[in-house]
Amino acid sequence: xxxxxxxxxxxxxxxxxxxxxxxxxxxxxxxxxxxxxxxxxxxxxxxxxxxxxxxxxxxxxxxxxxxxxxxxxxxxxxxxxxxxxxxxxxxxxxxxxxxxxxxxxxxxxxxxxxxxxxxxxxxxxxxxxxxxxxxxxxxxxxxxxxxxxxxxxxxxxxxxxxxxxxxxxxxxxxxxxxxxxxxxxxxxxxxxxxxxxxxxxxxxxxxxxxxxxxxxxxxxxxxxxxxxxxxxxxxxxxxxxxxxxxxxxxxxxxxxxxxxxxxxxxxxxxxxxxxx
Length: 276
Ligand SMILES: [Fe+2]
Ligand SMILES: [Fe+2]
What we know:
Elements: H1 2-8, H2 13-23, H3 29-36, H4 40-51, H5 64-71, H6 73-90, H7 99-119, H8 128-134, H9 137-145, H10 147-158, H11 166-174, H12 178-188, H13 193-201, H14 214-230, H15 243-248, H16 256-274
Helix pairs in contact: 2-6, 3-5, 4-5, 4-6, 4-16, 5-6, 6-8, 7-8, 7-14, 7-16, 8-13, 9-10, 9-12, 10-11, 12-13, 13-14, 14-16
Residues 135-136, 167, 178, 202-203 line the site of one fe (ii) ion.
């Protein structure tokens, strides 16, 4: 399934070039900026993201080179991957979800994940925006390659009486779910391993040995993203939150309204860039 989608939509060369330049530690912000600027749409999207409230440097980023210097090379590489992946998937047809709804959910997850990462001073926070945006990308692969089975799984998850979480419903129908498919795509596209892990783990329940890492943050952000989309702070309306993960991050219910507000402010200016 993943191999077929990879053939249908190859990952843009500019992202791979940026990745190579970063692997070669001699590259400077201006060199990386120059490569990204060859793609005007990508440059515009990076400037939007860097100037969004999520990054606390709003308004001061006027060139891609400056974005690279201020946001950091690793994070810009990850954002480049995310933007390229969204553009790629906007060309992969599916009848089951609007791309607007899909990327909105991803953007809200990205924004909440960044806020949470800052709050808990996560060390590997540079992956959070991209991981949030792409966490459900496996669904797009499944929707495109196996639309009929995906429709069955989707309908089963929407059933009011015994609606399973979508990933559990997929497991019943396919024997695996979108976390595994997404992680496989991320592996085939040579995404950083941390990013692959966040995609793979975003529905995995924490065990007692779990420590705070990016995948726990994305896991909680996924549920809170749904609240941000609904503009609600009522946990009953969100997909069930992994309680252990919630506690691990030191969160309580009173923190939610602020997180939701911040996410909404951050996401609004970005939606147009990602939804074409
Ligand atoms: Fe998911
Ligand atoms: Fe999700």
